[in-house]
UniProtKB/TrEMBL annotation:
Pfam short name (any one): Glyco_hydro_30
One BP annotation, GO: steroid metabolic process
Official protein name in the record: Glucosylceramidase
Domain Glycosyl hydrolase family 30 beta sandwich, residue spans: 450-513
Stated family: Belongs to the glycosyl hydrolase 30 family.
Keywords carried by this UniProt record: Glycosidase, Hydrolase, Lipid metabolism, Signal, Sphingolipid metabolism
Organism field: Pieris brassicae
Annotated signal peptide: 1-20
Pathway(s) it belongs to: Sphingolipid metabolism; Lipid metabolism; sphingolipid metabolism
Length: 531
């Protein structure tokens, strides 16, 4: 822990508070939008301004707006123009409420840590500040692999030797934890003003626990190691706690369908519905729930939307006792365009006490797609569309994949490169904030933990394209709306009780609206209760 204290002192010494926004250092990308460049002497940031009498809008767009801040006054209800000049009307009803928000974040992978550590200290600070500070986009969650992933420079797990070590006598963290992931998490903890809720996931245990004795390919967990694999998770919780990093949740293995059907060439472990249920009920559940980590959340699935009917619904049918152990479901982004979000409705309707959390997303993941695409507004739109859809189907948060990657989308031992909201150019000692970064920030900065989603109803003309939207009451005593306009410039009218707003939305833009919530509009205190 002395190492952490020294590291904290060095890192905090870089912090200089500013009281005004610092605009984007624009780099134009041919055929795309822009990126914002950060170097050791400058990095854009912005301060959320608490609304007073009127409302404040923040907009990012394909044409280059990045968190453009504007202060507005409400319209008078007698102003007839507020109705006539808009073809789209949103009616916000704070009396109808839905899920409580847990948060937003990204993954501290080996690759993210390697790229972060390739930068000089001032730039390392700017990156963490951009994600986790009040002058950044105010992430409050992170995802951390248990052992290696494809976004490592090698295949590895903990306790690889000795073989058949059922009692995990040689369990210890890897140099990637000590050199990359843990220092990055310390920096995040030192920067954030709120607790960081960390979700941890295993891609593959050591090969000796698996039927194929390999990190990749068709595999199952050998039944004689069911308890050992549960202990593997317990030991990870112990090791990270010893480093001052409490884990908020674990999942029951990353993308288990990959190991069942050999869908991926990177680290995986396959589970059938019956096997997974048996392991949760007889091993993982008792190990965690009867320990000092009994309050750590346990999420199942941690796979694509289409797997939920199998790894949740069918598993509970076969192993109903799992319902007493599982807190929620993790879901990934990659097949969302072909699997409707309505698949979540069954869980919300029949298991309202189980939450759903989006735990991984990245662009450029399919073989035919460009990996890193600097300045891509299309990818920002893909993100915001998915986030709004998920939130409107009762998901409690959204965690992106790697916090940062290099110019080719790595490192990745399997060459399975993808894009990231921040791209590092170590040679030039600078990093680039992609449009995806700002799409994420249009939500994460304004929807803090314990916000409550509220009803928003849209009316429009038949030929008018909808403005995608979601609304929240926040613990800051404000109402927040996120609006995504996918078409040409348009105007809309928004009504929330007696408040009326007329908004001009730039073409292909994301706009966040925030205004004070009056006392009579506030939700009961129990809506913001963690218990």
């Amino acid at each position: 822990m002395m190492t952490k204290i020294i590291f904290s002192f060095i890192f905090i010494s870089c912090i200089v508070k500013t009281n005004s926004d610092k605009p984007c250092a624009v780099k134009h990308i041919l055929g795309e939008s822009i990126v914002c460049v950060c170097n050791s002497t400058y990095c854009d940031d912005f301060i959320r301004e608490p609304p007073t009498d009127g409302y404040i809008t923040y907009s990012s767009s394909k044409d280059g707006l990045r968190f453009k801040k504007e202060v507005h006054s409400f319209l008078n209800a007698s102003d007839k123009n507020c109705v006539k000049c808009s073809e789209i009307h949103l009616d916000v009803d704070p009396s109808v409420s839905y899920q409580r928000i847990e948060g937003f974040g990204g993954a501290v992978t080996d690759a993210a840590g390697i790229n972060w550590k390739s930068l000089e200290p001032a730039l390392q600070y700017y990156m963490i500040k951009s994600y986790y500070s009040e002058e950044g986009i105010e992430y409050n969650m992170a995802r951390v692999p248990i052992g290696g992933t494809d976004f490592s420079t090698r295949k590895y797990a903990y306790n690889e030797l000795p073989l058949d070590d059922v009692n995990l006598t040689n369990f210890h963290l890897a140099h990637e934890d000590y050199n990359y992931k843990i220092p990055m998490l310390w920096a995040i903890q030192n920067t954030s003003n709120v607790p960081i809720h960390i979700v941890s996931t295993t891609w593959s245990p050591p090969p000796w626990m698996k039927t194929n004795n390999a990190f990749t390919g068709f595999s199952r967990l050998k039944e004689k190691y069911y308890q050992t694999y549960a202990d593997y998770h317990f030991r990870f919780l112990e090791e990270y706690e010893a480093e001052g990093i409490p884990i908020w949740a674990i999942t029951t293995t990353n993308e288990p369908i990959n190991g069942v059907f050999n869908l991926a060439s990177f680290n995986s472990l396959g589970w059938t519905v019956n096997e997974l249920g048996k392991w949760i009920v007889n091993h993982l559940g008792p190990t965690i729930r009867n320990s000092k980590y009994k309050n750590v959340k346990i999420l199942t699935c941690d796979d694509q939307r289409f797997t939920i009917p199998f790894f949740f619904n069918m598993m509970l049918h076969k192993h109903p006792k799992a319902l007493d152990i599982i807190d929620g479901i993790g879901v990934h982004f990659y097949n969302d365009r072909i699997t409707p979000a309505s698949i979540f409705n069954f869980v919300t309707k029949y298991y309202p006490d189980k939450f759903i959390l989006a735990t991984e997303a990245s662009e450029g993941a399919f073989p035919w797609q460009p990996k890193v695409l600097l300045g891509s507004w299309d990818r920002a739109e893909s993100y915001i569309s998915d986030i709004l859809e998920d939130l409107n189907h009762n998901l409690v948060g959204w965690i992106d994949w790697n916090l940062c990657l290099d110019l080719i989308g790595g490192p990745n031992w399997e060459l399975n490169f993808v894009d990231s909201p921040i791209i590092v150019n170590a040679l030039r000692q600078e990093f680039y904030k992609q449009p995806m970064f700002y799409a994420l920030g249009q939500v994460s900065k304004f929807v803090p933990r314990d916000s409550i989603r509220i009803q928003v109803n849209e009316t429009k003309s038949f030929f008018q394209t909808s403005v995608k939207h979601v609304g929240f009451l926040t613990p800051r005593n404000t109402t927040v709306l996120i609006l995504y306009n996918s078409e040409k410039e348009t105007s809309i009218t928004v009504k929330c009780l007696e408040k009326i707003m007329h908004l001009h939305l730039p073409a292909r833009s994301i706009t966040t609206v925030e205004f004070q919530t009056k006392k009579k509009e506030e939700k009961p205190e129990d809506l913001f209760d963690h218990s």
